[in-house]
From TrEMBL, chains A, B, C, D:
GO cellular component: cytosol
Residues annotated as transmembrane: none
Protein name: TIGR00725 family protein
Species per Swiss-Prot/TrEMBL record: Actinomadura macrotermitis
NCBIfam families listed in its UniProt record: TIGR00725 family protein (TIGR00725)
Length: 155, 155, 155, 155
């Protein structure tokens, strides 16, 4: 079973939510399980997109109960480990797609690259070294379809 | 969606594995998601029982990769947080069924009672206070069917 | 530097708190660092005993802030990982001393035995296998001095 | 007791290690506890600087044992929770000083900003929004002394 982690902010723009929904729909269409943080914004949009297309969605929650989880999760895993759960979200993906930007999202992107995962970014923040040169390792995609293809998991 | 955490040792007797398989089969038959630690022994048996009956099984792994996960999981969540993941397994269950005994299993049983969950024990270890009196809070079941009923989730 | 984890309930009897204070005093007198869960009851008593004797005490907290930490800690580590921090408390000790009983305390005792640590129990709960026979691996001590000696760390 | 988390890569340049040592020395001189990830590079340099100046240093390790910890720690907390421990390092600081850059370091910087901590960056990576504008919230310092002052903790 292919699993893809999709990360993004709770406070997301309508454009970001639309992209996340489409990413979820496409992943479900290819039979992949979507893993996300389980709450609102991008997390809810990707879950809605995937479950609406008949896919399986797992929300790895920071809290120890299902309180606040979005209604589109097939399964909720309330870890109770707070923001440390970001590491688990990332570890659960064969690749990671990032939609939009926030500090929590950036921590997931960074942990994914730390662990050597393929990371595809759709919009969102930019990271550069001390001299301002973009860092290697992140694939930037221009659309949901491009992002899903760029994971390299569906060939 | 009802979720039940099923805990038990990697080194399990054939009798314990048979009980776990039956617990998994019964839970899947009632439409519940099974959450377990994702490795061998009781974890593998409950996963085999549930997936064989068409159910959904999530393995919350201690390692940061899927290495060593049993082949019956629908989804694997490699948390990378080591034995601390026992807390996440327990938090993910609306109730907890314990089959057999080991130190890791006992930690899950204890965390479940710490968090106020309904805990049903099928065989396994016995805990008593300093004077030797059995502690309140654990329901003991004599069979897989009794254990599933004793969760109080299927009425 | 020798580090000893001391575990016990927040709701502790005066006798348990007195034992914990004495354990802390003795450990500090031998130059060991005391690691505990950082809150009240046994955790506070062992911290008071150790810091009163000039020792170093680290509280590994479940919350993400220092809120509720007892005032006798030299350092507080607010992990934010909830009850999963019990694993970290235990991992931080070269040996583990358990004073009194609770479900949280039992999870720490179990995790310590799971990881092969020397565990010394002063009072507290009793664990037996399915037939009621006491399990191997726990050393029972009759006094704080006996408990500290039984860690085997001070020879 | 004031606690400052100092984050930075294992693979650090000599210039970064020199800065980290000086940050450690200055923090110890002001009576602050240094919390770090406990391994090599910037983590070792800040620990050496602080302990050499008589300060207290806590290493919050990712592994479950003290294996690989640097020799300058006063106390080691082997959490066993892997990269999820980055959240604990950050939570343990009243402010966070970042020296140099790596993906692990970036995850700590991001988690610190996520939790609303004061973050001071000495060199290291640059983060910008989707349009390339630097993000609010990070204070950039030109020297160890400036970094320590910019925490706002020593007035």
């Amino acid at each position: 079973m292919i699993q893809v982690a999709v990360c993004g902010p709770r406070d997301a723009s309508e454009a970001e939510r639309a992209q996340a929904r489409e990413v979820g729909r496409l992943l479900a269409g290819r039979g992949a399980v979507v893993v996300c943080g389980g709450y609102g914004g991008v997390m809810e949009a990707v879950a809605a997109g995937a479950s609406g297309a008949g896919g399986l969605v797992v929300g790895v929650l920071s809290l120890s109960t299902r309180e606040g989880a979005n209604p589109h999760l097939t399964v909720a895993i309330p870890t109770g480990i707070g923001e440390a759960r970001n590491a688990a979200v990332v570890n659960a993906g064969d690749a990671v797609i990032v939609v939009g930007g926030s500090w929590g999202t950036l921590s997931e992107l960074a942990l994914a690259l730390r662990s050597g995962k393929r990371v595809v970014q759709l919009g969102g923040w930019r990271i550069a070294d001390a001299e301002g040169a973009p860092l290697d390792g992140i694939t930037r995609a221009g659309s949901p379809a491009e992002a899903v293809a760029a994971t390299g998991l569906f060939v």
